[in-house]
Amino acid sequence: MSNDGPFEAKRTDFHPWEFWSSADEKNKHDQHELQRLLREQHGYTIGEHCYISENAAVFCDSLQLGDRSCIAASAYVTHTLSAGPDCTINAFAVVRGKVDLGAAVRIGAHASILGFN
Predict the structure, then answer these.
(1) DSSP per-residue letters across 1-24
(2) Closest CA to 31 of 56, 8, 59, 61
């Protein structure tokens, strides 16, 4: 799937749980590089086999993703997020404030979780 605009969507942008079983070596390398940069530049903690879409807006002060957790395209994540293993923030979801997710939490597309008092 693609379009003529600057945003070229890939299936795994919207089905991020499929990334590690379907991506070619170049895309896997690119994902590892993105995660390396996020760790080094922002101090994020990212577990094994996580996926963060290049088209997600991730502007966290603190981010911890457990193993196999995913952030899909067009998700908007800010402030402080701690997610256990096997969590998915689906396309167009908004997660803002101080949010702690346990294991295997799925945030549906277009849902908002606001951790402000």
Answers:
(1) ---SSS----HHHHSGGGHHHH--
(2) 56
Residues 6+ apart with CB under 8 A from 70: 16, 17, 19, 50, 51, 52, 87, 88, 89
Alpha helix ranges (H) inside 1-117? 11-14, 19-22, 25-42
Number of Cα atoms under 13 Å in the Cβ half of residue 60: 27
Q: Give CA–CA dist 116/37, Å, rounded.
A: 28
Q: Tokens in use for 46?
A: 């990212």
What is the reported pLDDT for 1? 37
Give the global pTM: 0.90
Q: What is the CA radius of gyration of the chain?
A: 13
- Give the type of residue at 64: Q
Low-confidence ranges of the chain (pLDDT < 50): 1-4
